[in-house]
Write a structure and sequence with these properties.
It is a single chain. Helix content is 42%, strand content 0%. It has 64 residues and is mostly helical. The chain has a domain at 5-47: CytochromE C oxidase copper chaperone (Helix Hairpins, Orthogonal Bundle). It is found in: Mitochondrion. One of its GO terms (cellular component) is mitochondrial intermembrane space. Keywords: Disulfide bond, Mitochondrion.
Length: 64
């Protein structure tokens, strides 16, 4: 039996939030941050993290 993806719960939470908020990402920042945290720990063991591997939090958009 295949092992459950360690970040599947966070990935599902993002999808649920996006669907509930008409895909406005800014309304799901908490869920996205949780997914990033999970992927920092489990990147090598999580298929769900494949799209999060190289993405970085958008903390400082304008540092001018």
């Amino acid at each position: 039996m295949p092992q459950k993806d360690p970040c599947q719960k966070q990935a599902c939470a993002i999808q649920k939030c996006l669907q509930a908020n008409k895909y406005v990402e800014s309304l799901c920042e908490k869920e996205i941050a949780e997914m990033r945290r999970c992927c920092q720990v489990h990147a090598g063991n999580s298929i769900c993290c494949s799209g999060f591997k190289d993405s970085k939090p958008a903390e400082s958009k304008s540092s001018e």
